[in-house]
Amino acid sequence: MHALIIDDSRAMRLILRRILAGLGFGATEAANGREALDLLEVGLHPDLCLVDWNMPVMDGYDFVSEVRKVREWRDITLMMVTTESEHAQIVKALAAGAHEYVIKPFTAEAIADKLELLGLVQDGALA
Amino acid sequence: MILAMNGEQALVAASPKPTDVRKLTQEVWGTFLGEHGPLEVGTDLGFAPDWSASVSVKGEWNGVVALEMTTSGAQRLTRSMLGLETSEELVDGDLVDAIGEMVNMIGGNVKGLVRGPCRLSLPLVAAGRFAHGSGQREVVRLGCTWAAEPLAITVHAGRPAKSLTTRPLEAR
Questions:
Q1: Which fold has domain B14-163?
Q2: Which residues in chain A have their CB less than 8 angstroms from residue B94's CB?
């Protein structure tokens, strides 16, 4: 399994990369939605994208909306990982095509639980 | 008996409460940095901050959430978040990134405490003490200690953006 971690914070990308490594994922990083789209356009095809909302250049909402326009990328699972906790924002992201939503701060267990719900990891994979 | 609130009282009433900000800050801190000791709230050491990070919330409620730290505190936070040893060198960009992300998480959760739709800005990190806008007043100040390092979390509130009067550009 391979994940694309999209967050403008290097510290946050590193934290997520460590959690994903513990779940058996390889990972590529992008600092904003535009960088992430560029990676997809040159052929990267991850199983999962972890997407922050507030980022410079292109935010996570616009990234999700762009990915969902492309037929070849429809099998990519999109999970928002963000501080945006308003119900309306969550609904907006899910309506745009995100599959799941995790609010920062999160634990490794919370990420594992969501990925298990999405069928991307087995029960107890973190242990 | 109905008592009307003045503008100042209304501003405080609409703002996040110190107890709620304290709770969410300890949750954010504990989730990512808890293994290096708890965030103790209630101290006010009157320290001189070397770094300040802030995020603005704009919309129905208008305010700024700020985190102030010393350089040694910011270095400790950064090493903890990045999982680096004390022997590994840090550059200012590492500190800016780490304390910016911390205030982003605290600010995002503060935004969740206020009524109505609001937007969260990207974090702004600067050297020295946080400088708030002239129209804003401090509604929350948490003096804290973490890993023997002093830090402060503040929330400043101003009038909601929608109540500000602006002239059309062509009329200026």
A1: Chemotaxis protein chec (3.40.1550)
A2: 10-11
Task: From chain B, pick out residues whose CB is under 8 angstroms from the CB of A55.
Answer: 122
Interchain contact, A83 vs B109, CB within 8 Å? yes
Containing structural domain, residue A103: 2-117
Closest Cα partner for B109 from B49, B143, B155, B150?
A: B155
Is there a domain that residue A101 lies in? yes
Q: Is the CB of residue B73 less than 8 Å from the CB of residue B150?
A: yes
The answer to whether residue A89 is domain-embedded is yes
pLDDT tens figures, B1-22? 566 667 777 777 788 899 999 9
Does A123 reside within a domain?
A: no
- Residue A107 included in any domain: yes
C-alpha–C-alpha distance, residues B10 and B110, integer Å: 18
Closest in B98, B105, B117 to A105, CB measured: B105
Residues of A in contact with B124 (CB under 8 A): none
The alpha carbon of residue B172 is apart from the nearest alpha carbon of chain A, in Å, by 30
Assigned token pair, A121 = 């990891």
Are A15 and B32 in contact (CB < 8 Å)?
Answer: yes
> At CA A13, angle to CA A48 and CA B100, rounded to 5?
135
At B53-101, the pLDDT tens digits run: 999 999 999 999 999 999 999 999 999 998 888 888 899 999 999 999 9
